[in-house]
Design brief:
By secondary structure, the chain is α+β, with helices and mostly antiparallel strands. The chain has one domain: PPM-type phosphatase domain (Phosphatase 2c, domain 1). Helix content is about 30%, strand content about 30%. The chain is built from five helices and eleven strands, in the order ββββααββββββαααβ. The strands form two sheets. Strands 2-1-11-10-7-8 form a six-stranded antiparallel β-sheet. Strands 3-4-5-6-9 form a five-stranded antiparallel β-sheet, covered by helices on one side. Strand 7 and strand 8 form a beta hairpin.
């Protein structure tokens, strides 16, 4: 089974809802559901006010357009990119907006992560921490700035006790490998409070954790 938790900090205050993080369970909850989780990072001054709408657009469009996990992620990000591009076409240079994003789509224990920089994530497996960030040149420019973009995709087959953490790059810069290893080794419900304590002093940030837990035994 999968456990999911998150936190967000806006203007130095922990809040239930912030513009930087969103969770979008499959609205149909069919026999074969897939869910999407999103962290957005403003990449230019003034982009903060667009982040909440951007997250909601990605979540909504993923569920409307998905045929596969990767196809749904790509279409949702393309639409988000085009929305920001349209704003920038009508704006003067000093008012342009842009954002990085980490989008995690999960079906059963199969997970796909799509990233456009600035973006940060971590895989924790068998006691080791593996940072995950965009690798390809086309994914190292934020959404909204250029005509073309291409997200970097990662695929994970989640095993028991695996953790995937998507988080704001501003928070990732604060955390050492030892910080992450210590927190992610904890029970899932304790990991995020520990990371939140380490995030104190950061004005705006968020984190979302997906933990693969042992399946609960069926009732006799």
């Amino acid at each position: 089974m999968l456990w999911v938790g998150q936190f967000g900090v806006e203007e130095g205050e922990a809040k239930e809802h912030t513009p930087w993080v969103g969770a979008f369970p499959d609205p149909g909850r069919t026999e074969d559901p897939s869910d999407i989780y999103v962290i957005v990072e403003p990449a230019l001054p003034g982009s903060e006010e667009f982040c909440g709408d951007l997250i909601n657009a990605i979540g909504d469009n993923f569920h409307k357009k998905k045929v596969s996990l990767t196809g749904g992620l790509l279409r949702a990000l393309e639409m988000a990119h085009e929305n920001l591009r349209e704003w920038n076409r009508k704006s003067i240079k000093d008012h342009r907006v842009a954002a990085g994003v980490s989008c995690l789509a999960i079906h059963q224990h199969e997970a796909y992560l799509a990233q456009v920089a600035p973006a940060s994530a971590v895989l924790y497996r068998a006691g080791s921490v593996f940072p995950v960030a965009p690798r390809i040149p086309d994914a190292n420019e934020p959404l909204g700035l250029f005509d073309e973009f291409r997200p970097d995709f990662w695929r994970f087959e989640l095993e028991e006790d695996d953790r995937i953490l998507i988080l704001s790059p501003t928070l990732a810069e604060r955390l050492t490998e030892a910080d992450l290893s210590e927190a992610l080794a904890m029970p899932a419900e304790d990991a995020l409070p520990d990371l939140y304590r380490k995030a104190r002093g950061i004005e705006n940030c968020a984190a979302l954790l997906v933990a693969a837990l042992p399946d609960e035994p069926e009732a006799a």
